[in-house]
Design brief:
mainly alpha
């Protein structure tokens, strides 16, 4: 009999159990240490990314209070602080109020109409079974893969013939933004698929119409996806630049804030309007920040609740 076997015979049952568990304990400690190290490196990377992401916004915020010069400078902290730039934006010398109002009107109408059309389409595709339903869903998904730039020229000429460009670009942009709302059904449909169809059937038995079921039963139960749809519909026109500039074509009364403020960055205006641009950026970001802070929980629930296969 070997020495190891003799040693094992002398061990008590408890000591034998501890000896057997030592390799497992060491393995567990090794996994825990490697996981901790991985988490530390992950947090360091996230902190660095956050700093890189937030530095430009901090610089813009500081520059909005600079009053010693309105052009581009090579320092961040202003030498003289004041609210002159904010006062100028809301004065008669600036068109910022017109641009801001145009953007607000566009975002408000698109927010309401697009959400209504998108949720209605999602509810129909979630609850109804009809011929070519699958074909329609696939067709909308395929069309959504093509960039909107492909149709910009024809849309421009259509709006121009209708008199909805230039000074009348606001209603034209609302029509364009809302026109394809139904094609964004997939996230909302995934959320509606998680709601039991027995609620619809019970309401129909009690005499409710399809519209009553949708507005009075399904939507109150779908607050996360409704708020998610409202936020995404509000954000798209609020920050749009390319198509808005294309439709407004240098007519100040039809511009949104993105197009109007872009003009301040041109070579002939940047030296006298750079601080005004930074100030406008701060003001434009306030509604978005407030909305996300207040509705962040519902936004996350809407995304995760709609991320199901259906």
């Amino acid at each position: 009999m070997g020495k190891m076997e003799e040693k094992n015979l002398k061990l008590s049952p408890m000591e034998k159990l501890e000896a057997e568990n030592q390799p497992k304990h060491r393995h567990h400690m090794g996994l825990k240490a490697s996981r901790t190290i991985g988490n530390v490196f992950g947090y360091i990377i996230l902190v660095l990314i956050s700093i890189i992401w937030i530095v430009p916004f901090v610089c813009i915020f500081f520059q909005s209070f600079r009053i010693e010069s309105s052009g581009v400078v090579n320092y961040v902290i202003p030498k003289q602080w004041g609210l002159d730039n904010y006062a100028w934006l809301f004065s008669a010398d600036s068109d910022f109020i017109v641009w801001y109002f145009n953007t607000y009107i566009i975002a408000l109408f698109v927010c309401v109409l697009q959400t209504l059309f998108q949720l209605s389409m999602a509810y129909v595709l979630s609850r109804f079974r009809f011929k070519s339903r699958r074909l329609l869903m696939n067709l909308m998904l395929i069309l959504g893969m093509f960039p909107g730039f492909l149709s910009m020229i024809i849309i421009y000429y259509i709006l121009k013939n209708m008199g909805l460009t230039g000074a009348n670009a606001v209603p034209g942009l609302i029509i364009v933004y809302v026109a394809s709302s139904g094609m964004g059904y997939y996230v909302s449909k995934g959320f509606f698929d998680t709601i039991s169809k027995s609620l619809d059937e019970a309401a129909r038995i009690d005499g409710a119409t399809r519209a009553q079921v949708f507005f009075k039963i399904i939507l109150p139960l779908s607050k996360p996806i409704v708020i998610y749809s409202l936020l995404t519909a509000f954000m798209a026109p609020w920050g749009d630049f390319v198509f808005a500039r294309y439709i407004a074509f240098n007519t100040s009364s039809g511009m949104n804030v993105a197009v109007g403020m872009w003009r301040w960055l041109q070579k002939d205006m940047i030296n006298s309007h750079y601080t005004h641009f930074c100030t406008g950026g701060v003001i434009v970001s306030i509604p978005v920040i407030v909305l996300f802070l207040l509705l962040q929980r519902y936004y996350v629930e809407g995304v995760t609740g709609g991320a199901v296969k259906g």
